[in-house]
Design goal:
heterodimer, A: 364 residues, alpha/beta, seven-stranded parallel beta sheet, five-stranded parallel beta sheet, 42% helix, B: 274 residues, 9 helices, globular
Chain lengths: 364, 274
């Protein structure tokens, strides 16, 4: 049982934290990986959440590991608005975290989860790549051991998979959104095939064998979109008649949605975790794109798509289906904003309730 | 028969002669590839026995054509095309040339209309062309040999993808100009085809068009099928009568015509206009 003086002090502190929560003057910290100037959907996801909270007048700090001088960040591909969010090096700068604050930690940073276990605030895992978890959490350990009980992730499917491995985890889904820079301008497309892949090996595996197998189409231009900014990539996809998306590890499929929204015919290898938007209600794969499972099939599919396109034989309803999938309200910026605001409010309310209960316990 | 008054473009079919059932079948196939709502004109030597055959075929097909007749002695392809363009009614601001043994694809005209409405500044729309070769089958079996006009869609071919420019066409001959859609006003200012240039007259014409700064765009859509190897055709005559080096020489001659011949005069003209 606490002595009276200590009790009063604790209650005063708790009241102060509750007040910070109620007034919204708590801080949302986001640990982020350094993208080194290369577009990364997982990093973008965190930045979008942070930016929205910042725009809602919450305090936001982006925290990175490593030295200030080595940090490259997201300016080149996400832009100034995101790069100009407050940033701090957790290695070089002192960071004061209070109990009313929230710390978001990406899925690959299990070390950070471990090292911040004694933080007084609420810590939340951000999960965009399921594989990161198994790759980075040591054998015999799990997130619960680090006190991580909350997570946000990109889809219901991912939520299900997380709860299979960590049943105690309270997972909230915040769907990514297709940005405004992705749209179909109605202009005639160019006969070029945009390749949406993270790895140069994929590009080589597509382009070279295609020209060998289909020499009659060796003049078809392939565009490797790696290294472009979001705006540049959006423009290239919009101009391209066909987009080829390869990413076995992707857990949401944002790139594919962006291609659909841009009016580009989507050819894609079905990822290990099939994106929800690729599925019909009955669980079968829908007709929003030309999907295949074996990499060897990609060249035949591209040749088929090129032939259909140059013969102007793409069915009218293809673009209707693609449009309706990519235009689903749940992938809109508005829906994202509502989800983020709703999540922040929920976490704040939960925290207030926790502190209130603690205070009541202390008062007894 | 329905009068085609809605379209502002017309197809021109030059017919030198239809010798035999084979040619008649080809002609009818070509006409059939022109949609019913697209007007077409046939230009023919009035002395040719084929005049009657053409009329018979059109009647059997229930198709109506604007019949044009070339001058005596001017029955070469270039002269016939030039004469046809000159003779077109004013309302046709655009035209396309269909060789009587070739055909348009089903998508040709809707793609032209779509691209023209999006690119009103362009005066020459080139489609992708499929080059097919007759394999001697009397029932007109054929096989695809290659594409034509496709090179401008290869990365790095020209400065702007889809747009042939002087640098890129100087060393590249594989363009097929039949099936293209020309705006009459620019055709006129460019000066039409040169009948004194054998074989490579279309190539010289394209060079001239680009040199004069007239706009051209290759629609990345298959719009035309050119059949090579028909007995009596120019392409077969060239294949059989000329060696590879001779054909190259004919194209270089067209290049010379462009670089040494008219272009100097054109330069002076353009300077005077400026």
């Amino acid at each position: 049982m606490m002595d009276e003086e200590k009790k009063t002090s604790v209650i005063e502190r708790v009241d102060a934290e509750i007040e910070k929560l109620k007034s919204g003057s708590c801080t949302f910290f986001f640990y982020v990986m350094d993208s080194k100037g290369v577009m990364n959907d997982g990093i973008a996801y965190e930045y979008e959440i942070a930016k929205h909270l910042h725009d809602c007048n919450y305090n936001v700090v982006m925290m990175y590991l490593g030295n200030k001088e080595d940090f490259v960040g997201v300016r080149e591909w996400l832009g100034d608005e995101y790069a100009d969010l407050p940033h701090k090096s957790s290695s070089e700068e002192s960071i004061s975290v209070s109990p009313s604050d929230f710390v978001f930690i990406p899925d690959a940073y299990s070390d950070v989860m471990r090292d911040t276990a004694n933080f007084p605030c609420k810590r939340i895992a951000v999960v965009t790549d399921y594989d990161h978890i198994a790759q980075t959490v040591p054998l015999g350990k799990q997130w619960g051991d680090y006190g991580i009980m909350d997570a946000v992730t990109v889809s219901e499917t991912m939520k299900g998979r997380l709860n299979e491995i960590f049943p105690y985890l309270r997972v909230s889904v915040i769907n990514p959104f297709v940005g405004d820079e992705f749209y179909d301008d109605g202009e005639p497309k160019k006969l070029q095939v945009a390749i949406l892949s993270k790895y140069p090996n994929d590009v080589n595996s597509i382009v070279k064998p295609f020209s060998w197998k289909y020499p009659v189409y060796r003049w078809v231009t392939f565009m490797d979109l790696r290294g472009l900014s979001m705006e540049e990539m959006a423009e290239s996809i919009r101009e391209s008649a066909i987009s080829v998306w390869i990413d076995d590890e992707d857990c949401f499929g944002l790139r594919g949605l962006q291609a659909l929204k841009s009016g580009s015919i989507l050819i894609a290898k079905v990822p290990e975790m099939i994106p929800e938007w690729m599925l019909n209600a009955d669980g079968t794969i829908n007709d929003s794109g030309l999907y295949f499972s074996r990499m060897d099939d990609i060249h035949r599919v591209i040749a088929m798509a090129v032939s259909s396109w140059i013969n102007d034989m793409i069915p009218e309803d293809y673009f209707e289906i693609a449009g309706s999938v990519s235009g689903d309200e749940k992938y809109s910026r508005n829906a994202f904003a509502e989800s983020v605001s709703g999540y922040a409010k929920k976490m704040i309310d939960v925290r207030i309730d926790e502190y209130t209960e603690f205070k009541n316990e202390a008062l007894r | 028969m329905k009068k085609n008054i809605e379209k502002d473009y017309i197809v021109i079919i030059p017919v030198h002669s239809l010798s035999g059932e084979y040619d008649v079948t080809l002609f009818e196939r070509s006409v059939a590839s022109v949609p019913a709502d697209v007007p077409f004109a046939v230009i023919i030597d009035p002395d040719e026995k084929s005049c009657g055959q053409v009329s018979e075929s059109l009647s059997a097909m229930k198709r109506e054509a604007l019949m044009l007749y070339c001058e005596q002695g001017k029955t070469d392809f270039c002269s016939m095309v030039n004469a046809a363009v000159e003779s077109l009614p004013e309302k046709y601001g655009w035209f396309s040339i269909l060789e009587f043994d070739d055909e348009y694809t089903p998508a040709a005209f809707r793609c032209f209309e779509r691209y023209r409405s999006s690119m009103p500044e362009v005066a020459l729309f080139m489609p992708l062309v499929e080059i097919d070769s007759f394999n001697g089958d009397p029932k007109m079996g054929y096989n695809m040999v290659q594409f034509s006009n496709e090179a401008v869609w290869a990365a790095g071919f020209s400065e702007m993808i889809g747009v042939p420019d002087l640098e890129s066409v100087k060393d590249f001959y594989n363009f097929n100009m039949t099936g293209c859609f020309f705006r009459r006003s620019e055709w006129g200012s460019c000066g039409g085809l040169k009948s004194d240039i054998p074989v490579s007259f279309w190539y010289e014409f394209l060079m001239r068009w680009i040199y004069r700064g007239l706009s051209v765009y290759t629609m990345p859509k298959l719009g035309y099928k050119h059949y090579s190897g028909r007995k009596g055709s120019l392409s077969l005559t060239v294949e059989e009568g000329f060696g590879g080096e001779e054909v190259d020489a004919l194209y270089r001659r067209a290049l010379d015509e462009y670089t040494k011949g008219f272009s100097k005069d054109e330069d002076n003209e353009l300077k005077e206009l400026q």
